[in-house]
Design brief:
The protein is mainly α and 165 residues long. The chain has one domain. The protein has five helices and no strands.
């Protein structure tokens, strides 16, 4: 006869019942789709506005990705030390101002550094969002929450450029 102890389990509550996470997720999804839509739209705009050659167009995704490689670890340290919401708001404000400045770029040699600077601001938002997710979601729901965030990020890489056409 086996004597196993009966351990009652808590009923599983959906992560979607967490209103703070749901709002963060929706904002993240919109932002993620917007980032990829934006990247594709900039390439098209550059191709038509300045008749840029293929090399210059190829430098656009490089300038968008390079800050993440260079400053990703540093951004994580900053996100750990600063208030996450303030950091995300400052990064979004800086990105907004830099996006507006893109409209006034007189040529590719101005556009590329502006894109890199704008992408640098975005690098700070990602670790702040991840840390904030960890703070607002229960420990037993953290895997699901981060999986959903990863899913929308990957899905937006496919759908965002398609929407930009």
């Amino acid at each position: 006869m086996s004597t196993t102890a009966f351990v009652p389990t808590r009923p599983q509550i959906s992560v979607w019942r967490n209103r703070i996470f749901t709002k963060m997720y929706m904002a993240y999804a919109i932002s993620s789709f917007g980032d990829w839509f934006d990247a594709f739209a900039i390439e098209i705009l550059v191709a038509f506005r300045w008749r840029a050659d293929p090399m210059m167009i190829a430098l656009i995704p490089v300038m968008i990705a390079l800050p993440g490689i260079l400053f990703g670890s540093f951004a994580g340290v900053i996100a750990d030390r600063w208030k996450k919401v303030k950091l995300m708001m400052l990064a979004d404000l800086a990105e907004t101002l830099l996006t507006i400045s893109l409209l006034f770029a007189p040529g590719m040699y101005w556009l590329l550094p502006l894109l890199a600077l704008r992408a640098t601001m975005g690098v700070f938002r990602v670790p702040a969002h991840q840390a904030l997710t960890h703070q607002v979601v229960r420990e037993d729901q953290l895997l699901k929450a981060t999986s959903y965030n990863g899913l929308v990020n990957q899905f937006s890489k496919i759908v965002g450029p398609l929407l930009g056409q």
